[in-house]
Amino acid sequence: MDVGVASRTRPTGYAVHSPGAGPEPVGRVREATPTTSSRASIPSREIRLSRYGGPEELEPVDATARAPGPGEIRIRQRAIGINFIDIYLRRGWMPGMLPLPGVLGMEAAGTVIDVGDNTGGLLPGDRVAYLCPEPGAYRSVRTLAARHALRLPHDVDEETAAALLLKGLTADYLLRDLGRVGRGTRLLVHAAAGGVGSLVCAWAKHLGATVVGTVSSEAKARVARERGCDHVIVARDYRFAEAVRAHCGGADVIVDGLGAAAVAENLAAADRRCHWISLGQASGPLPPLDADKLVMKSMTFSRPVVFDFVATATELQERAGRLWAALAAGVLRPPTPELFALDAAGQAHQRLESRESTGALVLVT
Ligand SMILES: NC(=O)c1ccc[n+]([C@@H]2O[C@H](COP(=O)([O-])OP(=O)(O)OC[C@H]3O[C@@H](n4cnc5c(N)ncnc54)[C@H](OP(=O)(O)O)[C@@H]3O)[C@@H](O)[C@H]2O)c1
Predict the structure, then answer these.
(1) What spacing in Å lies between the alpha carbon of 194 and ligand 1's midpoint?
(2) Average pLDDT over residues 24-42
(3) Could you tell me the pTM of the whole model?
(4) Could you tell me the distance, in angstroms and rounded to a whole number, from the CA of residue 135 to the centre of ligand 1?
């Protein structure tokens, strides 16, 4: 796919939530002039977490971003993807991954300001996006290893990239590598109107699957249907197994980001030889699994993390290539993420935790 540098515009109709205010337009922060020569730290704004807890612990502060060392790039970030893992980290569920004080965020998109040696051809001025297993994306300028980044196609803007990259690559490995989803696969997708869920539904439908989705409201059911769900089950209380069996006889593959509250119902919704993919725990941490529960239906179980599926530059490029191609072909719709100013990260977290959001949430700087 053609890649290059392009000017960026926010599509008409996008609104941004600012701190303590309703939706309103946000001004662009100062632009950095691309250079290869700057060795100095430069000003950045970041959302610091000094204590695990609720959204109120997310504190916007002024900071600096150091010059890139060998193999590193420094990026003026324009759009930062919010993912549910940010909430687990904020709550302190994975303290080894985010020691305090720390900065959340696994992905962002923007423009390279300057580079160190050996950055795989990335240059100042390149528009890039990245996902990175070390948190730290909630900031306006970030220095990080170039191997996590890729150039953006000219027709993909930064907000689209931040809304799609981590979630779309997740959909790719779920459907292709773990679920091996194809014509006739009976696929059960939880949170089917959510960031990952809506992409999984659309892509799975294109691959010929019968897609059954669960959501918590009628409004979300409409979104899930638009995204390709054949059958939508509205089940805010996580009771869906009976309806799944009624719709399709049982699931061959389950994409489960719910965790604790859905364990028994997932086991009941599965058909023989079902593959249950537990990728998240929005309802609470998954309790230890009794393997004997799987043997009753010869089920298999996986507990994957996206970063292990993009561990090499080649794999990252291949998966991203499929994602941009799916977007260009209309298999995946251009996302319309809900935008929040960087300083309003706490509001964005409240929104994601409220179970009211659909699609992706993105911070803009
Ligand atoms: N392992 C990986 O590689 C990987 C990568 C990306 C995401 N994930 C996981 O995939 C899942 C979806 O992530 P996402 O970022 O796209 O989020 P999301 O689906 O946009 O939002 C989470 C959704 O979970 C549902 N939910 C059910 N119980 C909930 C509760 N008690 N509190 C909050 N939400 C609840 C809600 O949908 P309903 O109201 O419709 O039920 C909510 O909209 C998460 O579990 C995440 O950790 C895993």
Answers:
(1) 7
(2) 52
(3) 0.93
(4) 18
Q: Which of 107, 164, 279, 323 to mutate to test the pocket of ligand 1 (most atoms within 8 A of CB)?
A: 279
pLDDT of res. 361: 98
**Which residue is closest in CA terms to ligand 1's atom 10?**
257
Ligand 1 mean position to 36 CA, how many Å? 40
Closest atom of ligand 1 to 357 CA is 43
Domains, the chain, with CATH or none = 16-165+307-364 (3.90.180.10), 183-303 (3.40.50.720)
pLDDT tens by residue, 130-179: 999 999 999 999 999 999 999 999 999 999 999 999 999 999 999 999 99
Residue with tokens 């959001």: 357
Distance 196 CA to ligand 1 centre (A): 7
CA distances from 216 to 123, 124, 205, 335, 356 (A): 45, 45, 21, 21, 9
Mean pLDDT for the stretch of residues 273-287: 97
- Residue 360 Cβ contacting ligand 1 at under 6 Å: no
Q: Where are the alpha helices (DSSP H) in the chain?
A: 84-91, 158-172, 195-206, 218-226, 241-248, 263-269, 292-295, 313-328, 345-353
